[in-house]
User: Fold Glutamate racemase from Francisella noatunensis.
Amino acid sequence: MLNNRPIGVFDSGIGGLTVVKNLMNILPNEDIIYFGDIARIPYGTKSRATIQKFAAQTAKFLIDQEVKVIIIACNTISAIAKDIVQEIAKTVPVIDVISAGVSLVDSLKTVGVIATPATINSNAYALQIHKNNPNTEVYSSSCGLFVSMIEEGFIEGEVVELVAKQYLEYFNDKNIQALILGCTHYPIIKESIAKILDVKLIDPSLQASKMLYSLLFDNKLLNRANSNPEYRFYVTDIPLKFRSVGEMFLQTQMQHLEIVSLDNY
Assistant:
């Protein structure tokens, strides 16, 4: 049955685990397959063509795992390669984190966005926000070091706050009403961000999980009978700190963690 199939989630690295954590809470009966392209991180500084190629390979891998839905837990891919992922997925629904984040700012007059250089350069957030509300002012800033910092296990403390302060100073005179955390890595350090910038923080990864619940419910795809869900984690490399940082964030063990190659995709 289709409702017994797993949910597929993918990102360039560890950041997409923010989505997995939310899914574990919101959809506790669902099997989840997570794919992290650790060997080729960060995506945010790579060319458009390279990002599209990597996204296509990952989408093909997840379809081979017979997932019932795909969440693009990467803002960079959402901005640059969502259409390619949907084309490969065919009838399998695809949810992306940018659409999820934008859905929460319709009534705001001024919004800030922090994201990777590729996401910021694509202008994806501003374009989608202005589709819904052309009068909303959008201020964007790329935070290139955040991803590498988090992947190395720096998720709190003085180093994180110093780097965050440097990036967030841009917003001091912008009078923004909310800040979109436009990379799924960023919620991992949201407490440090909140110390520096006293505004509402919007987490697209949480909203994407809520949107997925609605999609599965509406299409009768919820797995209600599974009392022992399986979580499988596939990566293209396992750095020294990946498991420890991932398990600390998920608050559970990564019992099935496997290295795979995308060379044949």
Remarks:
- The CA atoms of residues 11 and 74 lie 5 Å apart.
- The chain is about 40% helix and 15% strand.
- The beta strands are 7-11, 32-36, 69-72, 94-96, 110-115, 137-142, 178-181, 200-202, 231-235, 256-259.
